Amino acid sequence: MSGIHITANHIDLNYVDSDHEKELEQPLHCDEAINNGNGVVVGIREPPEKSHESPMVISDQRKLIAVTATFSVFSLILTIALLLNVKSSLDAKQTQPNIVFVIVDGLGWNDVSWNNPDVQTPTLEALGKDGVILNHYYVQPTGTATRAALLTGRYPFKIGLQHINNGDTVRDGLPRNRYILSELLKKLNYTTHMVGKWDLGICHEENTPLYRGFDSFYGHYFDSSSSFTHSFTDKVTGLNGLNLYDHTGAVGHENGTGINELLLRRIHRITHGHIANNPLFMLISVDLQELSTQESERFNNASSEIENEELRNRYGMISGLDKFVDDVKNHLIHSGLWKDTLLVFSSASGGDIDIAEMSNSPLKGGKGSVFEGGTRVPAFIHGRSVVKRRYTNNEIIHITDWLPTLLSMIGEHRAAHDVSLDGVSVLDTIKHGSTSPRNGHIYNIDLENPIIAAIRHGDYKLIETDNSTLNVDVIDKGNHLVDYNVSKPVTALDASTKQLYNVKDDPKEEIDLFASQPEKVIELHQKLIDSLDEVRAPLPSASEDDLNRSYYNGVWVPGRC
User: Fold this and answer.
1) In angstroms, rounded to a whole number, what is the distance separating the alpha carbons of residues 381 and 427?
2) Three-class DSSP category at 62
3) Residue 486 has pLDDT above 90, yes or no
4) How many CB atoms lie within 10 A of CB 233?
5) Beta-carbon neighbour count of residue 462 at 10 Å?
6) Do 537 and 482 contact (CB within 8 A), yes or no?
7) CA 227, CA 295: separation in Å to the nearest integer?
């Protein structure tokens, strides 16, 4: 085994070899001076029984009393020291917060009440304003790519997930040569659960949640499904089948029950059945459109003054999401976990403007684009681990930053120095409001047609696009890790395909500075060129044959491609 070293709750995050799966099954052994590993103190013994020996002479008794008194004082000091050590150890354990991460596909910039007073999100706004609202927070253009970036701490173009379009079914999923966030937290003694949508690889069973560090999974392996029938219709084959799973078993008896109710039932079971010896990590991944339930209908009935039916339905879905998060919070409160919980809320992409045109207003673009409306999204963090609270943070934070930041927050700081990660630890930024170590990010580099590349550095953002054919030779390096050998370099792109914006002064991206600031264009363009060596060929979407093999008796089954 190469590359992974685990000692005393610390993890080295280097690459691992092909025996990765076997190592993941090995437990983490930590030698603790006063703890047997199961939360039971073993360092204090019961006092010995009283002696019944013959009486001694007075002088000997006095000597004995003096010695006994001295020994008793020493024993008392030792006992106090042990108890303080126990308390210190328990306090250290309590510094590891429960982590609940809620990520929502398709919630746009304008879909929350702190950015749009017409929207009703009282729970989200209260949590955000009691914690820290992240005002310059960025994700990937699509939800699948964002979830991949969250779990790996890396830009999707480095792992082949830069070309996923809306509705595509991911075939191969996350690479197996690195630990992801759930696996790392599990190594650090967390109990790990996932609820909601996976959509990060269906053709190989080892790419599903239970093989990637989660103790349990309840939800969709494939893309979003019908809210009540829980069926998924594939756009390639047209096949429609059940897409709801409990661990590895299909759930066929909940037809007619809303997905939000089913997810909340499972969250209730997780929170109320959680054993306090281990901190909890729960990833809740949902699609905004799936939460159009009774709460949405209630909102629609109470908001007849909104004449635009599309807008009314949109606000209803958002109201349903807010109620869902409120229920999650209440489950954590009633189970006694809330006071020690760090809650992160994040959209997974901008709103889909084909469905809701005003979702990202006043930002330009939407889901699937590298404009601000597709990548700058609502987010906040809430919990006692955050020292400075009740303000809006305007530092740049990226979805890849959560892996090193969360690990640093629980005392594992090595990830903050892992140069193979694209994420950086923004722990001090989040806890104390200090300046972010991040000065920009790469939105995406996709060399497939159409070519799309975008980067922000400081206040400036460069977008490069080209709809012409790019002659690309692909060199297979095994294990789906392939490099581009670009025979027509990006430097040959026509200048008209470049756009430069100052997104600090012009967040709407209305004033193109390409012609007036050529030096800045050249600077940012070179940064994109410098990143081309790390671009990987896009992993293929599931083919028609893959999907036909994955469809069995009306059920979508992972691991059959």
Assistant:
1) 12
2) helix
3) no
4) 15
5) 24
6) yes
7) 13
Q: Residue 531: helix, strand or coil by DSSP?
A: coil
Query: Quick check: 336 pLDDT over 70?
Result: yes
- Measure the N-to-C terminal CA separation of the chain; round to a whole number of Å: 29
CB-based contacts of 506-511 (< 8 A; 24+ apart in sequence):
507/362, 507/363, 507/372, 507/376, 508/362, 508/363, 508/364, 508/372, 509/363, 509/364, 509/365, 509/371, 509/372, 509/461, 510/364
Distance, in Å, from the CA atom of 85 to the CA atom of 33, rounded to the nearest integer, reads: 9
Q: Does 485 have pLDDT greater than 50? A: no
Instruction: Name every residue whose Cβ is closer than 8 Å to that of residue 384 and which is 6 or more positions away in sequence.
Output: 97, 339, 340, 342
Which residues make Cβ contacts (< 8 Å) with residue 393, sequence separation at least 6?
Answer: 132, 133, 134, 135, 136, 429, 430, 433
Composition of the chain by helix, strand, coil, percent to 5: 35, 20, 45
Task: Single out the residue of 134, 120, 102 nearest to residue 377, CA to CA.
Answer: 134
- State the greatest distance between any 2 C-alpha atoms of the chain, in Å, as a whole number: 107
Please answer whether residues 164 and 170 qualify as being in contact, where contact means their C-beta atoms are separated by less than 8 angstroms. yes
Q: Is the pLDDT of residue 59 over 60?
A: no
DSSP H stretches of helix in 233-308: 259-272, 294-302
Q: Which residues of 337-368 are buried (b: 16+ CB within 10 A; e: fewer)?
A: bbebbbbbbbbbbbbbbebbebbbbebbbbbb
**pLDDT of 138-157, one tens digit each?**
999 999 999 999 999 999 99
Q: What is the pTM of this model?
A: 0.80
Phi, psi (rounded to 5 degrees) for 331: -65, -40
- CA–CA dist 184, 241 (Å, integer): 34
Inter-CA distances, 146 with 216, 347, 364, 446, Å? 21, 9, 19, 15
Residue 7 is classified by DSSP as E
Q: How far is CA 446 from CA 106, 141, 439, in A?
A: 21, 12, 22
